[in-house]
Design brief:
Layout: E1 10-13, E2 16-21, E3 24-29, E4 47-52, E5 58-63, E6 96-101, E7 107-121, E8 130-138, E9 143-152, E10 164-165, E11 172-179, E12 185-189, H1 195-223, H2 234-263, H3 266-271
Membrane topology: Single-pass membrane protein
Keywords: Membrane, Signal, Transmembrane, Transmembrane helix
Pfam families: ATG27 (PF09451)
Length: about 270
Amino acid sequence: MVLYQASFGRSIDPCSWETTSNSKSYSFNLLTSVGHSHGVRSEDGFYKVEEKEGDGSVTTFWFQPCEHMRFSYDAPMCDSCESCGGPLHCGETCSALQAVSTGGYPVCTTLGSASNHSYSLINPEKPELGVILKMVAASTRKTCSLSVSVYCSMKEEELPSVVTKVTLAGCDYTTSIRHPAGCPVVTSVKGGGVGWFGTLLIVLLCGLIVYFAVGIAYRMTVLGVSGLEAFPNLDFWKSLPHKIQLGFEAAISYVMGWYRRFTEPTYMRVNE
């Protein structure tokens, strides 16, 4: 079962979505993909999945990702289809439909509309895994939905074969497709921030500025000094470049000593 998890992003049109994760911007387009001019949508105008229940009833799901369905054959025929085209055009004005038949005439429930949809990542930590399209149908009685998880697959295409109910009491369902349209395009890479080292440098710099400001103010107002003498610990700051130079020279001498120790022949060290 794939659970729906909300994620912030921007929907350009019903078949496109952009989101940001791990400092990168990912763009999904279910309408077009390499080698598939129709994208993740069925060329027939709809997908159809049948589920046989233990009590003998048959539940049929029709859906078409990110647009309303079209039927040139095998159109749904059932009662209670008013919210999805009515009895004469059942299924043609929604994007997901369920029909339950218990021996008599099947009864329809609209599960999704192309104009009422949302997107999320299958795994926010791995955006390249794919995207979830959730189609929602709201009525005065209840709100139903169908979530289609489109897994990224460049090698093979796997059409939906199973529809799973998310909760026993509700009318929310989920299914999955493996398709190249689920593979995102990295449209931009954003800066990942200054990081902990950059933050440390900023804190040290701010502390140094505060130190100078407070020290100068104290020496000028309390001690009555001015000019360069107003800088706190002036002798230390004057000698700092020379101390840094001596430190570099000591470090270089230490490294060179170890280098000679390991590169000179053993007999030369013994003679010394």
